[in-house]
C-alpha cells in the first residue's frame, strides 16, 4: 500500500517539475533582457547612421524655342513663317503651349483680275498667337544606328487664339500633331503640322479659311 502511494507521489512530482521547467524556458524567451544563448559572435556591427539630403534634380518643366517653315493661306498661296514657342509640361503626358508667329500674305493673283486687288498693299503681314493644350500619346525611344537611342514623342495639340490680317483680327482655332526628338535632357527638335481656321470677308462674302502650316524648330527646356 505504501509503495503504491509513493509511486503516485513520485509521478505527480515529476509532472510538476516538468511544467515548471517549460514555464521557465517560456519566460526566458519572452524576456528582452535575457542573455542570448550564443555568445560566440566574432564581429559586433557598429554602424554610425547619418542624415542624407537627397539631391535636387532639375525638373525642366518649361520649354522655350523657335521655329520656321511654311504657312499656306487659303486662296493666297504659301509663304515662309517664323515664330516663338513657350511651353509648360504639366505631366509627362500633358502640356500647354503658347505661340507667337508671323508670315506674309500676297494677293498678287487677284490683282491680275481685280484692279487694286483685295488688300491695300500687295503683300500684307499676317501675325497670329494662340494658346494650346497637347497630349503625348506615343512616348518612347528612337534608335539612331545600333548603339544610340534617344527619347521620342508623338503628340496631338489643339487650341484657340487670334490672327491679324489687313488690320482685322480674327478668332482662330488651331489643331494638329507633331513629333519631338530629344537631342539631350534639355534640347530637342520639333516637327509640327497645324491647321489654323478662321473666317474673314473676301469680296463681300464671309468665308472660313483653312490655313495649313508645316514647321520645324529647336526647343530648350529649363527650370
Question: What does the model show?
Answer:
There is one protein chain. About 2% of the residues have low confidence. This protein has 223 residues and is mainly beta. It has an eight-stranded antiparallel barrel. It is built from two helices and nine strands; from the N terminus they run H-E-E-E-H-E-E-E-E-E-E. Helix content is 15%, strand content 56%.
Radius of gyration: 40 Å
Spans with pLDDT under 50 lasting ≥5 residues? 25-29
Span of the ends, CA to CA: 100 Å
Per DSSP E runs of 2 or more residues, the count of β-strands stands at 9
Count of DSSP H/I helices: 2
Q: Note the main sheet.
A: 8 strands, antiparallel, barrel
Helix vs. strand class: mainly beta
| Portion of residues within helices | 10-25%
What is the global morphology? rod-shaped
Strand content: over 45%
Strands side by side in the biggest sheet:
1-2-3-4-6-7-8-9
Keywords:
single chain; 223 residues; mainly beta; eight-stranded antiparallel barrel; 2 helices; 15% helix; rod-shaped
SSE map:
Elements: H1 2-30, E1 62-73, E2 77-89, E3 94-106, H2 108-111, E4 123-136, E5 140-144, E6 148-165, E7 168-182, E8 187-202, E9 205-222
Antiparallel strand pairs: 1-2, 1-9, 2-3, 3-4, 4-6, 5-6, 6-7, 7-8, 8-9
Amino acid at each position: 500500500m505504501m509503495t503504491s502511494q509513493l509511486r503516485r507521489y513520485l509521478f505527480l512530482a515529476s509532472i510538476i517539475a516538468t511544467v515548471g521547467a517549460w514555464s521557465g524556458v517560456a519566460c526566458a524567451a519572452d524576456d528582452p533582457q535575457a542573455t542570448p544563448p550564443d555568445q560566440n559572435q566574432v564581429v559586433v556591427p557598429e554602424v554610425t547612421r547619418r542624415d542624407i539630403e537627397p539631391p535636387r534634380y532639375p525638373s525642366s518643366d518649361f520649354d522655350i524655342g523657335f521655329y520656321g517653315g511654311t504657312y499656306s493661306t487659303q486662296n493666297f498661296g504659301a509663304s515662309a513663317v517664323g515664330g516663338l514657342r513657350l511651353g509648360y509640361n504639366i505631366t509627362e503626358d500633358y502640356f500647354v503651349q503658347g505661340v507667337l508667329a508671323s508670315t506674309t500674305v500676297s494677293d498678287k493673283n487677284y490683282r491680275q483680275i481685280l484692279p487694286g486687288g483685295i488688300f491695300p498693299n500687295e503683300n500684307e503681314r499676317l501675325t497670329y498667337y494662340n494658346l494650346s493644350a497637347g497630349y503625348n500619346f506615343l512616348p518612347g525611344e528612337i534608335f539612331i544606328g545600333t548603339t544610340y537611342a534617344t527619347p521620342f514623342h508623338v503628340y496631338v495639340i489643339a487650341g484657340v487664339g487670334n490672327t491679324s490680317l489687313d488690320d482685322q483680327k480674327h478668332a482662330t482655332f488651331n489643331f494638329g500633331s507633331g513629333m519631338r526628338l530629344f537631342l539631350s535632357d534639355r534640347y530637342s527638335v520639333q516637327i509640327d503640322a497645324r491647321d489654323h481656321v478662321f473666317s474673314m470677308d473676301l469680296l463681300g462674302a464671309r468665308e472660313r479659311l483653312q490655313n495649313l502650316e508645316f514647321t520645324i524648330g529647336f526647343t530648350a527646356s529649363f527650370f
